[in-house]
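thought: fold this chain, then report.
action: predict
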Amino acid sequence: MLEREALFEFSFPPTWLKEGENLTLQCGFSSALLPFQQDVAWFRDGVQLRQFSRVELQTALCSASLTLKGVHKEQEGMYMVHLRTWEGVKEHKAYIFVKDASAVVSGGPGSPLALKVSDVQKDYVFLTWEPPSADGDYQVEGYFVERCFLTVTPVFH
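observation:
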């Protein structure tokens, strides 16, 4: 006789939040996860999420959660959780909307989006970005980029 597998009992709805806020998505299961079900997987826009300093993944006996700390606009998207079952994979998904944070200067534009560094040299750096979704009713003409020097101390274990 097969053990009773866990299925989704409740899960997260579409959610709206503002940049910089923390987000926790949670789903509950109908029973305790069986050993083969304990590898619950989380995805954003089809890309599997991994644990790191600002992404926390937790799986308990009857629930799983994803916490994003200090959400950025680029983290907006379709979030999915996959649960393995005897018959394959069950999934739940919902869209997470991220509004721009308030501008640093009242009435000013928001931060640039999708910032990418493509080349770093001693004398220069190439940056590309998308314009902010909220421009504060003014055309963004450019940004100031400041250079600072950091001292890195290696840590040996």
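thought: worth noting. The chain has a mean pLDDT of 86.
final: tokens above.
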